[in-house]
Amino acid sequence: MEDLVSHLAVGVDAAVTWQNLLYCFVGVLLGTLVGVLPGLGPVATIAMLLPVTYGLPPVSALIMLSGIYYGAQYGGSTAAILVNLPGESSSVVTCLDGHALAKKGRAGAALGIAAIGSFFAGTVSTLVVAAAAVPLAAFALKFGPAEYFSLMLLGLIAAVVLAQGDVLKAIAMTLLGLLLGLVGVDVNSGDERFTFGIPELAEGISFVVISMGIFGIGEIIANLERDHHRTQIVERVGSVLPTREDYRRAWKPVVRGSALGSIMGVLPGGGAMLSSFASYMLEKRLSKHPEEFGKGAIEGVAGPESANNAGAQTSFIPLLVMGLPSNAVMALMIGAMMIHGIVPGPQVMTERPDLFWGVIVSMWIGNILLLLLNLPLVGIWVRLLSIPYRILYPAILLFCCIGVFSVNNSLFDVLLAVGFGLLGYLFIKLRCEPAPLLLGFVLGPLMEENLRRAMLLSRGDPTVFFTRPISASLLIFAVLLLALLALPHFRSTRKVAFAED
Amino acid sequence: MTPLVKSVALTLSLGLLPWAAQAAYPEKPITYVVPYAPGGTNDNIARVLSEFLGAELGQPLVIENKPGAGGTLGASFVAKSAPDGYTLFNASIGNLVIAPQLVPVNFDPFKDFTPIANIAESRSVIAINPKLPIKTLADLIAYAKANPGKLSFSSSGIGTPGHIALEYLQVLAGISLVHVPYKGSAPALSDTISGHVDLIADPLANGAVKSGHLRGLAWFGGTADEKELPGVPSLLDSFPQWNFSGAFLAVAPSQTPPDILKRLRQAFDRVLAKPEVIDKLKLMGLTPQRLSVEDTLSILRATHDTSADIIRRANIKAQ
Question: Which interval of the chain is the signal sequence (chain B) (predicted)?
């Protein structure tokens, strides 16, 4: 405990200087902006800004770059709530209830709860990083291929439970997502699958392409057809801030989401996303009104938003403790450290305590800045919804295209997104929810990769999934979840919860 | 204007144009293609160099990330672009000479590109999880011979230098290991540190050996001193015939005019001689090497032949 206090004191010394506060603010502001713009993500932004940071001291540079990362998580939920566009896999879940709330004229409440929940989660996870980074990194190492497989399986089953409407359609969409995830070079054999000899497909389809296509372009086509007489997404903008009732319903999901996110964020490859989605499931199970989920339940925004923000922060743990990047943004941070002459790894903590603890403390400061920045902005964001279609839609399309292009600098990806836009339109006509497809798409390849890796390591012995304790417990959860799905009682409440309107 | 004057003027201006363009090279920003997503070693090298090259050439070097198909998408993009000195390629051994042997590509590394500069060799370390009772390379070989197929190794993917290197070791030492490919060095290293996989050969493992998370058995490529990898011998001590390592080089389309190439080679050479550039490259576990164009080509050729031989003998396939 004393250690923790003295460490945090070192961090406060490093982070609370005028210069570093300014860079932190610039980072979270830029992050919020790119997060709000559909499709533009922190990876492209950080890559573009790396040269700007050459001249800065390393602490300031890392504070600014990490600010962009968690700022973008904040901004991403804004786009998900307002225009139903998940820029990153972790905001897919936010779309479900967040956008439903926006359609009901309660965008302000959703945005407010998301901001406050994220702030709380950010505070909790900063403390978690400061106090338990080392043991959590050790826990993450216990997750081998077998454990990841079982975790992903649990996630996939949950994807079906999560879906609205017809169970059969949800299963079909999940399977379609799995199939789309197969596109590209198979990691184990090096064989190409479903690439039709197109080299641009060799590394698979990017998440942003599918998400911008199906959610962005598809939705716009459908709306143009649907709403001749209406010119705005919502007619009533509604109150800007959450009500007392919202807070009462949201505080428990925020606490649970923060805990889930803090733990799962440590797992590289989809940990943060799975946490947002585990939190949604959990809240739906615990809620007294499961029938409201998918139609604008504030808990469905509060929990997942807190979880993904906590996860975004604890995903720094493998980087800070072991020098291992858990996602593309973390890989860029390693690059930034290298350029500043710091070799990432366990020695950073002892050799550069100012940098290590300074970045951690700056995360908490960044979260305060984000709250101060976002609460007043809620009013402005909400007013975006009253922009007429004829202006808003071309703008969204433009940003979707720029965002898709920025991922790989590839025109092919933009054309592919347009193709997925048509597919998305078809899904809307057929009343198929796209969320399970995206989850299948993200989880499927991870699940397959880890299944085959685990089998390779066990030399073909499938009992490895049951003999390893973490893997076995995850599988038991998965079976319980399936049983719940099959139970008549649950089925009937599920029917109420997901009845098509 | 009379027709004669007109044609004289035209001839003059036509004759002058290429001269003017070349004298002014570079007169606009140069695109430097990195064939991977931002964040890897290749990208980091390009970012360090571009800063100094921009000052040296008087025009900015703009990095463009063109990831896909194991780096070959970026390579073929540059191979197909105009040979005017405004599109250059930050190549690695993997995407320039190994990948074309495994996947169909529409470029030939030797016919379609010409080297601008050899940038650096990368030092990889063959490292093992310290829980295993294996302390030296000789222990590893003895253990693997006593327990064939029991040890596994991770790599950043099929046909990556780390994969080729450990296949090469198996061929030279007469042992058999199970290959477990990953998508990138970081997850491969992570599973080796945690002991899910036993071995790895990767530049990223240098840090894990230094911090004691992995035990270094031997290093290859570049140089290493006692401070960087204490107690770890060179692989050449056990296998003097070892002839394979990862390297990074800058290349241009082969039809690039000689005077532009000369200007580029001069600029790269000056930048690669700068102590601050050398320091930054060394921090990434690289050994900067300034070589003549001929030496660069002959190393490239040798690496190509070694990897072709290993791919054939170990029966590595993609496609």
Answer: 1-23
